[in-house]
């Protein structure tokens, strides 16, 4: 009986195994019939070791797998198409990752060898150590990229203490002379009294001494008795009256322009370079302790700044506007001032304890910031204590607090941006380049930089850390547009034109990108670093690998950057990556294939340029009837055929003031002044048609302005595409 029982049980087990096996086969056959595929690969850390317990999913599908001890995974039941893989980190030791390039999947295919690397991350206990600690281990080229020198990335030299990088020093008066700022109506500018913070007083710009030790000063006259007014002849740079307040410029922010040593060559006597930032304005800052009203206010409110890093009033009542309609242009109306120009900036409320570098600007213009704040009866949320590791943007702003990494040299204890997800990678840049008019949620509406008070006692001290946090919790109404001429952060963080698609201000690049076709790319998830390298002045990524070629700092002035990806498809199917490599060489930049430097004979170069010109001309003819236009993409004065000219029209503004001349004005077809272009390139990458501008015209021109009307892709070159917004 016992033997029969065992035989019986054995038959049941064999039958069960057979049933499972048959079922598995049937399921596999069913999947095969349904055309589903299998994807296998490995999830690694930055040191190459497999990551256990990571969850791998197919975007938009149900397929899911968890990695084994060696990091391997196998996804079954994957539907065919162009698919993206996402990896959810198994622990706080890593950040989420994904395959930025889509995997082409055919029905029933078995795809192997897919590898995804997860960035490491600092722990909650990590602190900032400063960029000098990075320079000791990293190569000299990388260190110099952020050393603050004239040829370093603009990120490391936007704020300069002292006056060594002032632009247009020639516009300042000589020590024996004076400059009298005026308001938009041409009257002598009246500004907030730095003595008591209440009344309005006259202002004169002055200098003392010779270069290189020359002082640049703002002279504030005493407040006058009621009924007494001063005229131009009453104002000068003498030591009288005794009650005048002299405040020296102690630092500058911005304005170095888009060429190597722009602050030393503001008149463009040397040939311009065209890297990934532009020229717009330079603001002047003064020390908090040089403003008598603030010294008095701090004493009365028991606020001490002793022992802290130097804090500044982040903008004085006058700044210099560099770019816009050139001074002397015939298109300027009577009395209208052209660029460069001195112009007013909040003259009635510049000397306040909440207008400081520590509160308004440091989040995007310093690294390793820590702040303490307090609310007062007359001013809300004043920074009472602040510290930072680096003034300006250095390594840790993008790589996270580096104390643990600096101590151990462990690559897993620092953020590696190239291994972030597309969302996190874009937010890395978007913390400063997607929020010009954003404001913090916690505390509400206080901080302009990416700040969330919920994290003030952990990693980042409340400031955004890429990959660790989500940017939407750092800004009120993140990504929602505000179309008001004067931005309202309560409406939305994206200051857009009325179409709610194109940015009106600078630093809106991420908001633009998220509205573009590039952001919805079905073959690759593009990020800011696809086209930009934050470590250099020269535009283009350090390495762009396409079709077996590696383009170093691909040039965009002659279409290399755009055509490297678009060649061989769509309207550019007739040109090859090899043709584009010739453009790269023409721009005197390096391109390799298989590790070997690419060269081209003169005849081959001519043929390649001809194929590119013919293809681009055909594209222009189909899209805009421009087939007869000359192909001159590398001529800044005649950029016909340059992809960016039409697809990245300059429709935004660098200045945050509203005068017609802040844009580049030109005549419309009726001979009236109109906006030809702005000075911030759109990152929506679409064509902005004149019709989109025309609908913004105020039906009552006596109440309109030229700057009410959005520039478009045609208005730079064509009078018919410009729309005058006023009567002149």
Shape: globular
* Continuous helix count: 15
Q: In percent, how helical is the residue content?
A: 10-25%
Radius of gyration: 30 Å
Strand content: 15-25%
Largest sheet: 6 strands, antiparallel
Number of strands: 33
- Give the termini distance in whole angstroms: 112 Å
Class derived from helix and strand content: alpha+beta
Overall pLDDT metric? 89
Which residues form runs of ≥5 with pLDDT under 50?
A: 1-33
Describe the structure.
The protein is α+β, with helices and mostly antiparallel strands and 728 residues long. Among the domains are: 1-32; 35-118, Immunoglobulin-like, CATH 2.60.40.1120; 521-629, no CATH class; 645-721, no CATH class. The protein is built from 15 helices and 33 strands. Strands 10, 15, 16, 17, 18 and 19 form a 6-stranded antiparallel β-sheet that branches. A 4-stranded antiparallel β-sheet has the order 3-2-6-7, with no helix packed on it. A 4-stranded antiparallel β-sheet has the order 11-12-13-14, with no helix packed on it. The protein is globular.
């Amino acid at each position: 009986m016992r033997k029969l029982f065992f035989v019986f049980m054995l038959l049941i087990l064999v039958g069960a195994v057979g049933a499972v096996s048959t079922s598995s086969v049937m399921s596999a056959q069913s999947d095969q019939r349904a055309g589903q595929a299998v994807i296998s690969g490995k999830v690694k850390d930055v040191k190459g070791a497999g990551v256990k317990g990571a969850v791998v999913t197919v975007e938009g599908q149900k397929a899911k797998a968890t990695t084994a001890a060696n990091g391997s995974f196998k996804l079954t039941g994957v539907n065919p198409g162009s698919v993206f893989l996402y990896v959810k980190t198994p622990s706080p030791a890593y950040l989420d990752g994904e395959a930025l390039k889509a995997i082409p999947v055919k029905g029933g295919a078995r795809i192997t060898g897919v590898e995804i690397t997860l960035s490491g991350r600092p722990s909650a206990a990590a602190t900032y150590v400063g960029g000098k600690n990075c320079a000791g281990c990293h190569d000299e080229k990388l260190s110099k990229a952020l050393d603050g020198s004239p040829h370093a990335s603009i990120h490391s030299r936007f704020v300069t203490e002292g006056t060594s990088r002032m632009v247009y020093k020639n516009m300042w008066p000589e020590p024996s002379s004076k400059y009298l700022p005026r308001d938009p109506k041409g009257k002598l500018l009246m500004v907030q009294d730095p003595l008591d913070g209440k009344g309005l007083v006259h202002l004169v710009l002055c200098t003392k001494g010779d270069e290189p030790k020359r002082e640049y000063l703002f002279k504030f006259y005493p407040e006058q008795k009621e009924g007494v007014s001063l005229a131009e002849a009453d104002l000068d740079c003498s030591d009288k009256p005794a009650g005048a307040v002299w405040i020296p410029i102690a630092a500058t922010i911005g304005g170095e322009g888009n060429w190597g040593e722009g602050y030393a060559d503001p008149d463009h006597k040397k040939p311009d370079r065209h890297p990934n930032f532009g020229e717009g304005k330079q603001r002047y800052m003064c020390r908090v302790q040089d403003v008598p009203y603030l010294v008095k206010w701090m004493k009365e409110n028991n606020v001490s700044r002793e022992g802290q890093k130097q804090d500044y009033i982040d903008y004085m009542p006058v700044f210099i506007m560099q770019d816009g309609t050139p001074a002397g242009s015939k298109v300027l109306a009577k009395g209208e001032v052209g660029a460069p120009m001195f112009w007013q900036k909040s003259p009635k409320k510049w000397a306040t304890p909440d207008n400081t570098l520590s509160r308004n600007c440091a989040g995007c213009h310093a690294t390793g910031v820590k702040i303490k704040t307090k609310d007062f009866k007359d001013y809300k949320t004043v920074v009472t204590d602040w510290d930072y590791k680096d003034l300006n943007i250095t390594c840790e702003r993008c790589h996270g607090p580096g104390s643990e990494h600096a101590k151990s040299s462990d690559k897993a204890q620092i953020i590696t941006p190239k291994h972030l997800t597309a969302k996190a990678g874009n937010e890395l840049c978007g913390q400063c380049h997607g929020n010009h008019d954003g404001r913090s949620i916690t505390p509400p509406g206080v901080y302009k930089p990416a700040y969330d008070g919920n994290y003030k006692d952990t990693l980042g001290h409340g400031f955004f850390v890429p990959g660790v946090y989500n940017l939407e919790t750092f800004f009120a109404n993140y990504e929602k547009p505000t179309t008001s001429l004067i931005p309202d952060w309560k409406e939305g963080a994206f200051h857009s034109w009325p179409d709610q698609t194109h940015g009106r201000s600078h630093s809106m690049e991420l908001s633009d990108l998220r509205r573009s076709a590039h952001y919805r790319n079905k073959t690759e998830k593009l990020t800011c670093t696809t086209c930009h390298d934050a470590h250099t002045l020269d535009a283009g990524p350090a390495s762009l690998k396409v079709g077996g070629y590696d383009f170093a700092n691909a040039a965009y002035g002659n279409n290399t950057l755009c055509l490297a990806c678009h060649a061989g498809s769509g309207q550019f199917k007739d040109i090859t990556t090899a043709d584009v490599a010739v453009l790269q060489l023409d721009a005197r930049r390096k391109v390799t294939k298989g590790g070997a430097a690419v060269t081209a004979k003169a005849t081959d170069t001519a043929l390649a340029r001809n194929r590119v010109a013919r293809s681009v001309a055909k594209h222009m003819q189909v899209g805009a009837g421009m087939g007869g236009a000359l192909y001159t993409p590398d001529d800044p004065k005649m950029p016909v055929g340059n992809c960016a000219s039409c697809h990245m029209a300059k429709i935004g503004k660098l200045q945050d003031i509203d005068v017609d001349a802040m844009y580049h004005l030109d005549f419309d077809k009726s001979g009236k002044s109109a906006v030809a272009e702005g000075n911030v390139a759109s990152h929506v990458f679409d064509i902005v048609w004149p019709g989109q501008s025309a609908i913004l015209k105020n039906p009552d021109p006596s109440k309109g302005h030229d700057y009410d009307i959005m520039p478009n892709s045609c208005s730079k070159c064509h009078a018919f595409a410009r729309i005058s917004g006023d009567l002149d």
